[in-house]
Input
Amino acid sequence: MIVLSRDGAWLSRLENIALRGGWPFEARAAIPAPGRTPPPERALVVLDRALAGASVAKSVAALRALYPAAAIAFACDEGDLDAVAAAVDCGADEVLGKTWPEEKLAVKLFALRDRALGAQTRVSADGALKAERRSHRALIRVRGKWSDAELDAAGFALLWRLLEREGEPVARAELGAAIAAVSGRERELGTVARRLSALKKTLAKWPGRIESARGGVYRLSSKRR
Output
């Protein structure tokens, strides 16, 4: 576990959790400069809001470039409304409340570690759409070449869930829960429709489609051959 923070109490709490999990622990007082040290093959990185700067999303993107195989958590005080707002769509795999009880933090971090070590790539049935969980990248193959489809954290969460259940109906409530999991708060049901509309536009070059049906269900399907 690599923790980017200057908060001694926070570092001590996470070090205790790391010791319980048998994980190596490293504390850093700033985001490392690129190229200083080779990135670990796998890592769990926790970014403190105090070190994230004006743009949390840019800081998370910098960490993904620095640690391409890492799972990234963003930590903030729940009472800091600006920090909570910054956590929404910041691109992190998980949002942590620094005031949470240690058991709740441990559950979240252990689950994040398990996800990071689990399945990391999903590909559509036609082989032309791919999502890579570690790098949070979505790629579309056009004329034999892969190109990036730019997605924020919520868009990626929707795509990941739909690809996981390709060809099957997925309830709006389930997709809303996927968004809430990465944003750290519940979302209105209308958010799902707006997010899916944006996702469809981003995937416009992919020959498959995302369909909606009565009853608030959605389905991702590859183009029939």
In short: Residues 120 and 133 are 5 Å apart (CA to CA). The chain has a mean pLDDT of 84. The first strand starts at residue 2 and ends at 4. The radius of gyration is 18 Å.
